[in-house]
Write a structure and sequence with these properties.
The protein is mostly helical. The protein is 72% helix and 4% strand. The chain has helices spanning 18-33, 38-56, 63-72, 75-94, 98-124, 133-136, 143-146, 163-179, 181-200, 206-226, 229-255, 265-280, 286-292, 296-304, 308-315, 319-325, 328-348, 351-357, 359-380, 385-405, 414-428, 435-441, 445-454, 457-484, 486-500, 534-558, and strands at residues 129-131, 157-159, 508-515, 518-526. α19 runs parallel beside α26, α21 packs parallel to α24 and α24 crosses α25 (486-500). The radius of gyration is 27 Å and the shape is globular. The two termini are 35 Å apart.
Length: 563
């Protein structure tokens, strides 16, 4: 069997090899048969019960542990882990060029096809169901008794083997063999993080997961090391990959702006995901993230080129000139990445749910991010004595006015949502201040995340109209301000952040009322906690986590862009 050395070398078997094929198939059959041998079956049964009791026993001991297990059983968590694994693959792809990039793309497509085929075979096989741990073991701790919103463990039947383990077991082997130890360990972590919550809540037995993942992993080893099937699929995958790369090279030659390099789309998509994720979290600026990633000036320039010249090119139907004018090959993958972040944090991990369900933890995290960003920005901008302090004081007054005077419940009218979009994009374009933070101050943050998750066009269309209008109006103005009055602009931004800390203070007496069948926050009175309890500790830990994240991002900003 060939092992991966130079870029483009196929890392698995390219011919029939009876030895490895018999070895791994025999191991898979032996593992599958072990549940039917009475002495071994008793060992599996004892292990099932012991592991379940150990993990299930953490539920009454800690609400945090119960929440972790409940969230881990949610389909959204599995989707988040899958997207994280995809991001890890894109990171690897972003480091490759030429033959290495072509090889990894074909191999990645190959891994996807094989994994889906094995999972489809599992789906087609007859179902084997048995009573789940929650339904068959007395004295277990039901997750619904601690967290009524969770449905984990309520299914009385458990599938044998577990379908998710079949997929992740096969994926772990293919990623390890195809791309090396790091991606293999990432896939293994994916398997464990999916499995533990299901065992703890009594949804599945440990042996359900071992049967699915173990047998699938051994069968995949047999396929990859003993047959040329994977190699032939890999060669077949080169056809669409080569076609896509040829098209991209042709577009690059026609549409590239002179003097500007166009990285392959994987790297730019990752940059867009980082910028989009930053803009969705109050306290981390998308402009700051673009600055860290070394694309800020080019991004502002591309947005500013949505102007009359672009309209003239479109009127003349000169689409090539129009695409070059707005640097389309740069801004399109950035936009795709930002859109992926919007989908992830509105549908997969709804931030609005975190804000409503865990306000102290979520706002504590936001507070830590913003407080750390104030300290970081002061370190990068000279205050310049009394005049500089005066600009900070001016910004602080603006921030306090926004935090105090803007009502908790703001209008839902389209005109106000439009203005919110304009204000948010103006903030996004300035390094140091977050567009989502502006939406939070204006009382439209959770509404915006909810609307994205539900694709509520009655909210999204006026918001998007405000964003587009604001980008066209403010991109040039902000670029002009930063070029001529950088220090004063940034000092005012620092002041606004200082004054607005009041709006994200985590410890507030929040009052909700049901309005049109929906719980609406009608008042939030800040207080300083006197007694230390779990809520206070969680809030403080979240603040420290926010500070740590900003410090990490700030250190990245000090490194060369190529890093």
């Amino acid at each position: 069997m060939e092992r991966q050395g130079e870029p483009g070398m196929f890392p698995m078997s390219a011919a029939w090899r009876p030895g490895p094929l018999a070895l791994w198939l025999g191991a898979a059959l032996a593992l599958a048969a072990s549940w039917h041998v009475p002495p071994l079956a008793r060992i599996w049964d004892a292990a099932d019960r012991a592991i379940f009791r150990l993990l299930n026993g953490t539920i009454p001991q800690s609400d945090a542990a119960a929440a972790i297990w409940a969230i881990g059983c949610e389909p959204r968590f599995a989707a988040f882990l899958a997207l994280t694994l995809l991001a890890a693959f894109l990171v690897r792809l972003g480091h490759e060029r030429g033959q290495g990039f072509r090889h990894d793309m074909a191999l990645g497509l190959n891994v996807l096809v094989v994994s889906v085929a094995l999972f489809a075979l599992h789906i087609a096989a007859p179902d084997i169901l048995r009573p789940s741990p929650a339904a068959s073991l007395p004295g277990h701790h039901a997750i619904s008794a601690v967290l009524p919103w969770s449905e984990a463990g309520l299914n009385p039947l458990s599938p044998f083997p577990a379908g998710h383990a079949v997929l992740t077991g096969s994926l772990t082997v293919l990623l390890w063999m195809g791309f090396g130890l790091r991606l293999g360990l990432a896939a293994l972590a994916f398997t464990v993080l999916l499995a533990l919550p299901r065992i703890a809540t009594g949804t599945e037995w440990t042996t359900d997961i071992i049967a699915g993942g173990g047998v699938a992993a051994l069968a995949t080893l047999a396929l990859a090391t003993g047959t040329p099937v994977v190699y032939r699929l890999y060669r077949l995958a080169h056809l669409p990959v080569d076609g896509l790369l040829a098209r991209w090279e042709g577009l690059t030659a026609r549409l590239s702006v002179e003097g500007r390099e166009n990285y392959h789309p994987a790297k730019q998509t990752l940059r867009g995901m980082c910028i989009g994720a930053a803009d969705l979290v109050p306290g981390v600026s998308g402009g700051t993230m673009a600055l860290i990633l070394g694309v800020y000036k080019r991004l502002i320039s591309a947005i500013a080129h949505f102007d009359r010249e672009l309209l003239g090119n479109l009127r003349r139907l000169d689409f090539t000139a129009a695409a070059r004018h707005v640097d389309l090959l740069f801004i399109l993958p950035i936009g795709v990445g930002a859109l992926l972040s919007l989908i992830i944090f509105s549908r997969v991990i709804p931030l609005s749910l975190l804000v409503a369900s865990f306000p102290e933890m979520t706002f504590g995290f936001f507070f830590g991010l913003i407080a750390a960003s104030i300290v970081g920005l002061i370190g990068h901008v000279e205050t310049g004595g009394a005049r500089g302090i005066a600009w900070i004081a001016f910004g602080t007054c603006l921030g306090l006015l926004a935090a105090i005077l803007v009502p908790v419940d703001t209008p839902d009218a389209a005109w106000f949502v439009f203005l919110c979009g304009m204000a948010a994009i103006a903030a996004m374009l300035v390094p140091g201040i977050s567009g989502s933070f502006v939406l939070l101050i204006l009382g439209k943050y959770t509404d915006a995340i909810d609307a994205l998750g539900r694709l509520d066009m009655s909210f999204l269309l006026p918001l998007a109209g405000g964003v587009v209008t604001g980008a066209l109006i403010f991109s040039r103005a902000i670029s002009w301000l930063l070029e001529r009055f950088y220090r004063r602009t940034m000092l005012t931004v620092i002041g606004v952040l200082c004054g607005s800390l009041l709006a994200v203070w985590p410890f507030k007496d929040r009052q909700y009322e049901m309005i049109h069948g929906k719980a609406k926050l009608v008042s939030a009175d800040p207080f300083v906690p006197v007694n230390i309890d779990g809520t206070v500790v969680t809030g403080v830990v979240a603040i420290l986590a926010g500070v740590a994240l900003y410090r990490f991002l700030d250190r990245l900003a000090q490194q060369p862009n190529e890093s």
